[in-house]
Amino acid sequence: MTRAPVRLLIHGASGRMGRAVLRLAAADARVAVTGAVNRSGNKVDGVRAWPASRIAAALPFDVLVDFSLPDALDAALELCLQRGAALVCGTTGLSSSQREAMVAAAESIPILYAANFSIGVALLHELVSRAATAVPDWDCHIVETHHAQKRDAPSGTALSLGEAIAGARGSPPQYLSLRAGDVVGEHLVQFTGHGERLELIHRATDREIFARGALEAAVRLAGRGPGIYSLGKLLLG
Ligand code: NAD
Fold this sequence. Notes:
The chain has 237 residues and is α/β, with parallel strands linked by helices. Helices cover 36% and strands 26% of the residues. α1 (16-26) packs across α6 and α4 packs parallel to α5. It is globular. The two termini are 23 Å apart. Nicotinamide-adenine-dinucleotide (NAD) binds next to α1, β2 and α2.
């Protein structure tokens, strides 16, 4: 039996990431975009859009895919709760109270939050946890580089890698953030001992990888029960 397409509302649709999600969704028969939300409310790539102030008017959807700004997230989460819809959220720089609100909302709806939707970074999390457990006394640094327009620092990805490292060895790494040109995203995790250094690095060269991961997550999250889901488990099994 073929499954009906998963209905998506794209939140932050006119941004770099939102447009990448729209492009991929248009070519994917497993999903149907029922609308978009952005600051202006102007149509995006032919898709009907609502401004943030009229988000409640959005057509029915199964999953809201969010790549916007922290200020915009609360209204999106509220809408998902009202509609009983799932949330796939990739916005970084969220406050701790916003993260807590997501955990509370997950009592009622399925939620997946990932600071990075690439499969390579999901693997990097596993590798750095393994390294941090094996050499807990080595110095550990995360050097992250992103395009000059990125607002938050350290990146959400660096912080979430740092959480994994702290969980594994008891102390967090040191962070260094570089903002330069049009770099999509690079994360170097460096463990330094005496006379040797281990470097684990992920380079994103095309932001479509994040959009592809988010779309795949949306398809897999649709129809699931309430709870917080992890990208690693959902995509890598
Ligand atoms: P962008 O600035 O290009 O786009 C932001 C979008 O949010 C725009 O469409 C804008 O209209 C919309 N927006 C702003 N205020 C709004 C409001 N109040 N209500 C509704 N929409 C609003 O940003 P971007 O580069 O597309 O990145 C968006 C977010 O995604 C950032 O937090 C970024 O760090 C994050 N990001 C996450 C991943 C990941 O894999 N999780 C990857 C890349 C970027």
